[in-house]
Structures
1.
Amino acid sequence: TAMNIALEAGADDVVVNDDGSIDVTTAPENFVAVVDAFAAQNISPSSAEVTMTPSTETALDKETAEKFIRMIDLLEDLDDVQNVYHNAQIPDDLEM
């Protein structure tokens, strides 16, 4: 049902996660139409936001990932920084 609603409203992709949640991906210009389509069916999302998603990712080795995580932490500590987006694949044992 969710897939039909999303795709008819202009969504690009619908993914059902292992925990049962559903991720709907759409172009920013279709965002409102997709959210409204779900609302019309009395389905309210747990969250709905326009965000940056990388089209390619870069794998980092452990040493580089540690430095990268420190850099992200420093950026997030700055008052003028609202969000930090990246395309790095961080090893599982170093997750942020």
2.
Amino acid sequence: SGVLWFGLYMVALNWGEQEVDAGTAAMLVNIGPILMALLGARMLGEGLPRRLLLGMGISFSGAVVVGLAMSGHGTSSVLGVALCLLAAVVYALGVVSQKPALAYGSSLQINTFGCLIGAVACLPFTGVLISEAADAPMSATLNMIYLGVFPTALAFTTWGYALARTTAGRMGATTYAVPAIVVLMAWLLLDEVPTLLGVLGGLLCLAGVAVSRSRQQTGPTPGNPDRPVKGRRHDAEYRSARRP
């Protein structure tokens, strides 16, 4: 997970965003949660509840709408599209790899080791870092420090804490709330008044998250109002309890 998350994903995403506009990058990377749910079902045996699939479909359509609202007049190269798709794939693989690792350590431990491993994986870029950091303005350096402290250290630690307590699919579906939050934050902090398309996309994202996080209601069977419907295992326990 260290190589995938902090090495390959970070490099592919940042490189890809230099080649495509922000809206296109957002739409492509948001394929990641869908892949996450599929890989979680296949590799972790998490299953694919209908509400999860329905909610993710709604949220993805909302992310596409937000991406269209964000898209400017910039060009998108084939290389940039390929890098963003690669970022989405390794994003999903990184989460599925991190999930079982969290059974053997805390989120802080797992992410600390992950960052160290990611740093080792990025050592080939050391020369470029030294030469370009020397010429970079102070604002760019401070932005890089901010990205390391908050969206990486703090966000990944809280992410790991939550991931250890839910499935990879449900956790991925929750990230579809991000486009809606971005629209709101851009309005509050950057005075970027959201378009009708952006508001619609944000609402779709939130609606999809609500659907995917909801649980199927269980109720009594028609023949016995005291007996809940909970599957074969619970049926067997019920029959055993009813025996004299």
3.
Amino acid sequence: LRRRLALLRRELGEPWPDVSDSGLLESLDTWLATELDALASGAPASRLDLTSALRRLLPWPEAVHLDTLAPERLAVPSGSRVRITYPEPDGDATARPVVAVKLQECFGWAETPRLVDGRVLVLFHLLSPAGRPLAVTDDLASFWSGPYAQVRAEMRGRYPLHPWPEDPWAAAPTKHTKNRAAR
């Protein structure tokens, strides 16, 4: 939640809260007061719900758009809903959200998704069936038209049970092996 809010603050500014380390320290009484009172009363720190505390910072009525602007997961063509990894709040100001997904689950996907009302391109880490990175791209159409041919040539012998079609545009996206997808 903190990383999602940080991206919204970076891209949209006010009214999204400053959730950097310094921003949170400055507003401790606003978002963490209830939890601090519980700690003072003897509650163990492990029982604190910091997500609820951070949600107190959400601006209303804009908060209803949080999941549209910066969703937790992204639906890919195979039907999977893959978690989006957002950049650290105090990290690189140009860092982008990352989706790590098996290459086969994205066959035919031409338009790279954007978040925050179309302002931020998602960076894809396309993975092998074993979960190892094969390519990093923010331009899926360009990947399918170019570098995919080399990736296919190198990987189809290594992972023969998985689909490596010559034409990724026409292939059905799948998270399964060829045999399981045929059933």
4.
Amino acid sequence: MSSSSLTSGNNTSALDLVRRKDGGLTLGVELPLDNDWSPKREAVRAAEGRPFGVPDLTSYPDLVRQVDRSGFAAVWMRDVPVFDPQNFGDAGSVYDPFVNLGFLAGITQNVALATAAIVLPLRHPMMVAKAAASVDQLSGGRLILGVASGDRPVEYPLLGLDFEKRGDAFREAVVYLRDACKNEGLPVGEGRIEPRLDLLPKPLQGRIPLVIAGQGRQSQEWITENMDGRFVNPHGLDALAAQASRWSSDRKMLGLDAGTFISAFHLDLADDPDERVTPIRFGARLGRKAFADHLHALEDAGVNHLALLLRPSRRPVNDVIDELATDVLPTLHNSTRVSQTAA
């Protein structure tokens, strides 16, 4: 790594990996890349003695490499500091997100590495800035930093923090992260910079894109002005279209680009490509033809990127990844369809 790469940024953005200039949709996957929410795998988990919500990570590195070489746009991970089986029952992807991002930077080459989302008030923003910039350098500028204020009250008192003040702490952390990316010195609070100190490395992107998951206890106006993207929970098409339209129009009113609008989908892809839709929480069981139709509808609704959670999948995860790469992703890069839709 050259010394100049530690101090100079550029105008590229990892968001370019997940948003297409023609307005089409890209697909990513959400870790942990197991399918333990299927009935068969649930029985295996119980037999192994793993608590509900703790994923099987045996094949995790190989599956990530498969995703990276198969044409997907991003790998997403959550931030779950404390496993709370009674109140939430989901350990997320288990690993510390920044340690995990460093690992993924070393075994992938193509996908954006994204968080949804780092709970900013639980960490000092100086350490978040240091870790994020390190990941960005090590990954070649592929970090998308999804951020949130957190929704698990149990975590805050463990760290001596006030859960009710997380909105203020979130805003302050965002300001710090933006200032720390600059080459002017170290932010020391209240808008002041100490020029004799600095935080290295600087991100390769110049400005790490920030995507908010949820509201972060912030106003719509603040989010529009300060975030580069929105990651919203799965909703019906009409609701997603309304959210995407408001996000885009609010950005344009401020003279900003359209930003990036992201959602998620819990997928159980059936063997039969013609199987019709059976709704499940936050997603559906369906064949690939119905799924492709749904993705095209999301494109038309203004969604730029969709993160797929495969934990409900009854089929092996590697098989689902293969079918999506072979038979679904190409339909999202069909210029003929895009031009027909535009017409």
